[in-house]
């Protein structure tokens, strides 16, 4: 009897597993519960429990860094530990925060709220009103992107009776004043784009039913989203209205609470930040303006009022180089901070505009190796005095939180604890040569002496122009490195490590090339004598789920085991599932025959065929992931099992687009994956 290998590339729509897309369907949940139980029975023994408990204890440590943001005179933090698994929203003064044990004032106990209301609440985000005690809080059920909005009073430390409230939806808000919000929400008939995000911006006044809130701005349903921001950095309040065409393109309007007034004459594929009378744009493609052609990834600055008056003589604030690329920028106290990777080394530049030109300086006192992140201490740009926070770390050095006050040298505020023994470990950089000759960097952490048989963990992302950096990872450190293993993080194309060219090379049809990059790194590790192919374990999540399932079907001989998490896999139907349509600019549109021609080359759900030598795989997702549909993971596991492969599946009920709603759940998700990986590469006996 022939094995059922549907769906196939030849018949991509003949899908016998569509029923698994019913997130709460009875038949689907029976599959999920049975599969998850079998996975836990197989890999959830005492070693797993020991690892889970050890990792949860690390995440719950009272001396972990409490990251803060400042609003007014106080700094705010959301804290989770064993006693407060859902979290405490709390605050203190910056002076007190410098102490070893600050005297925190609790604003909201999320665990108590969840118990009192019988809801699986997490605090997703907050939106405070500058100079006021009012805050909009976003409560998420189980970690989902969709949230319930409630107004909170910081002085009373309580929700506002008859205040602003909005039932569950994918929403965002901006305060206009104490009695008025700009609401971007998918809630309501005709209010959602095809991607499931807001397609309107509404002016919502206190006491007014949201259904009556007038629409100030709307975009077609085939856009990704509509949203807005309130800008108080100028002499009068202004609003920026954004028509997010797709993930990398937008139209911008400048306006007021009466609505948009002026559409900015700019390319659509830009990043833009305005502050006071200054406008800065970062280009994705070349732009010829005022007789000058500016290269992709250039950053240009100009007076906003002059631009609106028709002037186009931009100042070049940043020029890219082949392996020197901007990662981001932000304003603080009239200064523009540029975050740059130069041959993957962190560099931060301070650019200060004036009528006489732009002054440039480098942010000093920060390391030029490892990972350095810098951001504004103040929540609201208009309230910022220029103070910055910096986070410094590398794979064997725990993070340190630094405060940079004005022009002062960085001062250490907090140090994270060492959560694993790094004795004998070294961090080295290497490059593999991909199929087209491109050099693919990767960071290796492990023992100084190579044995040729290292139990090796690999990861990468390779999408959306997001650069991956070698952070200190407590889970990998405790459960892999401390036991003698080696880890590798690859900077494959599709990321933003070297700018737009690096991203575009791994985008659309190039996504397949990004996967070749990862396979090239795996081969290089064997060639260098670090390990053997069957000792390589690889993990990838979300966009990385496409990567891992393509290693399964395209390069099975290079891996011993694979861990695929919260994954995107089915490239035929992804645009029809939850937020999938918003990613067409990264992958392409499967409903267009020309684009399906390349999408089918990395749709592993269709490419998987029987009779191959696929390595064991664990596919894990969460039921409350309302960004990447859990059906991707469910269907891939079901198809692989039907063809006789060793494919395991795990799906907890909560977690959103992540690994769990609290520290213990996250620890369990990770520990289960690492237990599986170690077992399948023949390293289980070392996991004591």
Automatic annotation (TrEMBL):
Name of the protein in question: Prolyl oligopeptidase
Keywords attached to this entry: Hydrolase, Protease, Serine protease
EC number, UniProt record: 3.4.21.26
Annotated ranges, domain Peptidase S9A N-terminal: 15-235
Residue span, Peptidase S9 prolyl oligopeptidase catalytic domain: 480-681
Gene Ontology molecular function, alphabetical: serine-type endopeptidase activity
Lineage: Bacteria, Pseudomonadati, Pseudomonadota, Alphaproteobacteria, Hyphomicrobiales
Annotated InterPro entries: AB_hydrolase_fold, Pept_S9A_N, Peptidase_S9_cat, Peptidase_S9A, Prolyl_oligopep/macrocyclase
Superkingdom of the organism of origin: Bacteria
Aminoacyl-tRNA synthetase is among the record's keywords: no
Keyword Transmembrane helix in record: no
Signal peptide (UniProt feature, chain positions): none
């Amino acid at each position: 009897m022939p094995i059922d290998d549907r769906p196939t590339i030849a018949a991509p729509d003949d899908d016998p597993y569509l029923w698994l897309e019913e997130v709460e369907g009875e038949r689907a949940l029976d599959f999920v519960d049975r599969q998850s139980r079998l996975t836990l029975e197989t890999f959830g023994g005492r070693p797993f429990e020991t690892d889970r408990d050890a990792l949860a204890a690390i995440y719950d440590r009272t001396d972990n860094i409490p990251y803060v943001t400042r609003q007014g005179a106080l700094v705010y933090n959301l804290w989770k530990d064993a006693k407060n698994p859902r979290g405490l929203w709390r605050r203190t003064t910056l002076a007190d925060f410098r102490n070893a044990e600050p005297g925190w004032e609790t604003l909201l106990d999320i665990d108590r709220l969840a118990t009192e209301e019988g809801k699986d609440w997490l605090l997703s985000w907050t939106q405070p009103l500058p100079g006021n005690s009012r805050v909009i809080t976003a409560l998420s059920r189980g970690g989902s992107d969709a949230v319930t909005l409630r107004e909170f009073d910081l002085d009373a430390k309580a929700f506002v009776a008859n205040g602003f409230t909005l039932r569950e939806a994918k929403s965002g808000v901006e305060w206009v004043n104490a009695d008025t919000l700009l609401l971007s929400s998918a809630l309501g008939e005709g209010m959602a784009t095809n991607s499931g995000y807001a397609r309107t911006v509404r002016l919502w006044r206190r006491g007014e039913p949201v259904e009556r809130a007038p629409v100030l701005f709307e975009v077609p349903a085939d856009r990704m989203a509509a949203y807005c921001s309130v800008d108080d950095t100028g002499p009068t309040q202004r609003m920026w209205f954004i028509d997010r065409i797709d993930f990398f393109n937008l139209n911008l309007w400048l306006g007021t609470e009466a609505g948009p007034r002026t559409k900015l004459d700019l390319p659509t594929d830009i990043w833009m930040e305005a502050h006071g009378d200054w406008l800065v744009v970062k280009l994705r493609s070349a732009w010829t303006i005022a007789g000058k052609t500016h290269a992709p990834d250039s950053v240009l600055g100009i007076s906003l009022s002059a631009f609106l008056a028709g002037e186009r003589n931009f100042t070049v604030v940043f020029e890219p180089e082949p392996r020197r690329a901007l990662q981001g920028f932000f304003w603080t106290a009239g200064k523009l901070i540029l975050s740059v990777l130069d041959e993957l080394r962190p560099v931060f530049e301070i650019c200060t505009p004036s009528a006489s030109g732009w002054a440039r300086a480098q942010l000093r006192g920060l390391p030029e190796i490892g990972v350095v992140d810098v951001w504004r201490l103040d929540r609201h740009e208009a309230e910022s005095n220029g103070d910055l926070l910096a986070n410094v770390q590398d794979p064997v050095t725990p993070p340190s939180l630094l405060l940079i006050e004005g022009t002062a040298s960085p001062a250490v505020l907090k140090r994270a604890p060492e959560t694993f023994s790094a004795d004998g470990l070294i961090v080295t950089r290497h490059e593999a040569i991909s199929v087209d000759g491109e050099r693919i960097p990767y960071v290796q952490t492990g023992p100084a002496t190579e044995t040729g048989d290292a139990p090796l963990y690999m990861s990468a992302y390779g999408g959306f122009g997001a650069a991956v950096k070698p952070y200190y990872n407590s889970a990998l450190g405790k459960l892999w490195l401390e036991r003698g293993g080696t880890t590798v993080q690859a900077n494959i194309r599709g990321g933003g490590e070297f700018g737009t060219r690096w991203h575009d090379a791994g985008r659309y049809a190039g996504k397949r090339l990004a996967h070749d990059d990862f396979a090239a790194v795996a081969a290089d590790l064997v060639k260098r004598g670090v390990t053997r192919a069957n000792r390589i374990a690889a993990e990838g999540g979300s966009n990385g789920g496409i990567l891992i399932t393509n290693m399964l079907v395209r390069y099975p001989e290079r891996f011993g085991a694979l861990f695929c998490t919260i994954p995107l896999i089915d490239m035929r139907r992804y645009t029809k599932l939850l937020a999938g349509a918003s990613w067409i600019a990264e992958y392409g549109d499967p409903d267009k025959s020309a684009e399906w021609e390349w999408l089918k080359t990395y749709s592993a759900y269709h490419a998987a065929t029987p009779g191959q030598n696929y390595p064991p795989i664990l596919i894990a997702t969460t039921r409350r992931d309302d960004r990447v549909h859990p059906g991707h993971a469910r269907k891939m596991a079901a198809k692989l099992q039907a063809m006789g492969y060793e494919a395991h599946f795990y799906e907890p009920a909560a977690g959103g687009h992540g690994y769990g709603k609290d520290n213990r759940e996250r620890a369990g998700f990770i520990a289960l994956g690492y237990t599986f990986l170690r077992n399948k590469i023949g390293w289980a006996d070392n996991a004591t």
